[in-house]
Amino acid sequence: MRQVFIILSLLVLGGGAIYQSEVKSKSLPTPQPILGQSIKSEPQQQHQAKETTKTQVQQEVSSQIEPKANPTIAQGAKAPAFELPSMDGTRYKFSGQRQKPLVLNFWASWCGPCRMEAADLQKLYEKNKGNVDFYAINLTKTDDLDSVKGFVDTYKLTMPILFDQDETVAKQYQILAIPTTFIIDPNGVVTYKVMGSIQPGVFQTELDKVVKAKK
Q1: CB under 8 Å to 187, separation ≥6 — which residues?
Q2: Number of structural domains the chain divides into
Q3: Where is the composition biased (Polar residues) (predicted)?
Q4: Is 71 exposed, middle or buried (0-12, 13-18, 19+ CB in 10 A)?
């Protein structure tokens, strides 16, 4: 399953890792370790076969994602309420209005783009934690606790790490790829969403907007 996620990540969002919990393995072509690897050195017939397989995967990804996309979980939408346990045993609840804006980051330890943005996300948390809450929601059903703890230790994450153990919250937020990150204002409205790795400068600008609007 993790290999399918990693391979499909090459086909969308410049490297964002596909999160598709309901894709049946029989509906997808057998994945290769890395699409396009060493294509130039292969015979023409194998090259054509790889290109055909890649096209089929793209078509399958499109057919699976498009019917599930929920355009309401975007800017201006009310963010769904949830309650999840954290790594330290605390339960965190979101139910609409709150004192601070909230950042939700959906991730997994096996996700390459999640690793790429982890340090930037931690810096943003440290800079803004006085004005903004950050919840890093791990897709625990596709992960394992040892890897999660290793990820947190490696990148020295100090924000709350929440466990979405049965994908309930990921489904509520229509997560199609990870990382996906939301900014939610104090009224519980989504003001910004990015699917794929964040750009720290752009993300800080969006945080400044929502913090300024609160004052």
Answers
A1: 96, 97
A2: 1
A3: 38-47
A4: exposed
